[in-house]
Amino acid sequence: MNLQLKEIIQYLEEIAPLPLQEPYDNSGLICGNAEWMIDSAIISLDATEAVIDEAIRTKANLVISHHPIIFKGLKTIQGTHYVERAIIKAIKNDIALYSIHTNLDNVLSNGVNQQIARRIGLKNYRILLPKSISSPETGAGLIGEFENPIEISSFLELIKSRFHSPVLKHTELLKTSVRKLALCGGSGSFLTSAAIREGADVYLSADFKYHEFFEANNQIVLIDMGHYESEQYTTELLFELISEKYPNFAAHCTKTVTNPVQYF
Questions:
Q1: What range does the domain containing 93 cover?
Q2: Which of 32, 61, 167, 171 has the smallest count of CB within 10 Å of its CB?
Q3: Which residues, other chains included, contact 149 with Cβ-Cβ below 8 Å and sequence gap of 6+?
């Protein structure tokens, strides 16, 4: 089954409208033409050169990624940087690149954070920091409760197991158990104060800098699970959404591991 690219884009943007992306973001159609007919798609967290190579091998002419490959302005495209090489390969091989980033982060239903919450059994969750009073279903992060409190060490083991996190960085374990949990996939240190304000026992996210751990202020446990680890299941989320809408369309989850962080 072939689909026109603009039909796929329209469907994805019904789930996560582009106006919901953050001002610094670059979601949307990065490369290609919305009028193109799409034979098959690769879905990935990142649109790296290796993922473009995978698309070439499998004859896919669309890569749907969570993170946009072009995030900052490019002044030259010479192939000396990984972003330039990915764009050159995509253009030469007529591969469209589409990104659905912070707009997918900022929706509750079928969003990145809901995917995390479901995998750890969180209940009664809602947006942690709504965009406005009139839009409680959109905004940053998520907060919810476990049906029964989880002992803190068991919670740490749960996260390591469910998200294949080899290392968890955290602040002092002030709490003996976790009942109320705040979370945010990707870089979420900006939500620490909101998590404290909402009375969360633990705030689970990624990319905390050294001094940002001090912001726990003996009021909450901060856990850094890793950026890739927190968002890796976004690929499956997008695959499920597209496959449900277009069951005869050839969508595939990437077989390329794009995590740039290695552990020793």
A1: 3-103
A2: 167
A3: 177, 178, 179
